[in-house]
């Protein structure tokens, strides 16, 4: 009804304000503190003040809106849009007041929350989080830290088998793809390709490492396979110490082979055993292909979203471009650390720091080493979705999205942010290289329609609708279901989220994080159009469709309702 068309906007949302005004709504302004002021009786405006305001109407288009705002300053706002949940105390709202946030969504909008709660997914769904979320650990939790250490070691052993196979000139049976001159390493090949990276393509100089290194990696992987197959069901999985492996020595030799290109002694039978064992492990480990062979992990501030926070061990953390070169560690601003050595992960996480440090502050996640590249360059995708109810869970998926490119070509030899972090706030620090592919966008942004056109040009026209979109939808729903019981649901609330995905070489999506209050500030022509559209369509869903289910919902598609 007309008397309920009063709204409040807090934060940088000129599109929302303009759209609501165009619908005939009147804005009640937030107080200077950013929080809604308590209701109180208005003081009548002075007569001369009214005359001054009338004279300004023609001069200042905002004058009439400011006057109307003052007239309703003690009226109840029935639509509230803020950039943070804490701007409004939802406990004090009336039942029919609509607000764009839910409380306690950190269960899936922080890296720590997502890491913890996706482990509970099998209790709610048949989905396996390892098929869409790179494995992740909270390092302040002792049991998870130990699990990460074992994971790192096992990944090193598997990686050594991969390097052994690649350096003999043969890819894994059934995964080798013929080279395509129009594609860079790692570009989309739906059936999966194993493209050697620079440091693993040839054997390096110097004497070959002991042939027992490959034999040791084979033994470790066989034991792990036995554990995965529950062959040791009568006892606990063998701990690394029980397996008789000198892990310090093994990892140092592994670093020499992978990071320094040291030669690897390998017999013909060993190569065949490596191939056979990797094939068997692939049946148990959904992340075997995407994890690559460099054992790169990302250390992130766990209680933050959008990369906010500060890492320990402040090397390179001044925000400037990192020094190029083969390095086991590069600290990305702000607070994201790319690490390829176990000792550095543990040191930077400060696991031996003062006990007063908050448990779970840092998470470490496996880096997707074999991403889908476009003209040799890494990108990620921002995908919006909308939740309009948590009981029953009701999810809307936006059918438009946008890509964010890195400014420099992808390389595991150089772990600089310009090559590995797609965030706009990071990439704007770097200049584009002169040799950059001419078809890459100068503003670092594509729409998903441009991605579809590119995929069609490289012979993968069906990948978007058949692989990418279904995978993103399933990942979003799974993440929400895993946290559903933890969110404080309210019937008149809704919330728009921004999920960040990266695609593997096979075009399968990998969920990186979910952001509450995703930015609506345009950084390019693509985002200017799409950010305006998603805000307009959000209003269609939460205002028009709420009152009349026959109303159109723009590009929002209802993908899940319990």
UniProtKB/TrEMBL annotation:
InterPro entries: ATP_grasp_subdomain_1 (IPR013815), TTL/TTLL_fam (IPR004344), TTLL_monoglycylase (IPR051437). One of its GO terms (cellular component) is microtubule cytoskeleton. The keyword Ligase applies. Residues 31-60, 171-207, 304-324 are annotated as: Disordered. Residues 310-322 have a biased composition (Gly residues). Keywords: ATP-binding, Cell projection, Cilium, Cytoplasm, Cytoskeleton, Flagellum, Ligase, Nucleotide-binding. It catalyses: L-glutamyl-[protein] + glycine + ATP = glycyl-L-glutamyl-[protein] + ADP + phosphate + H(+). It is found in: Cytoplasm, Cytoskeleton, Flagellum axoneme. The keyword Cytoplasm applies. GO terms for biological process: cilium assembly; cilium movement. GO terms for molecular function: ATP binding; protein-glycine ligase activity, initiating. Residues 48-57 have a biased composition (Acidic residues). Its main location: cytoplasm. PROSITE patterns: TTL. This is TTLL3 monoglycylase. It comes from Rostratula benghalensis (greater painted-snipe).
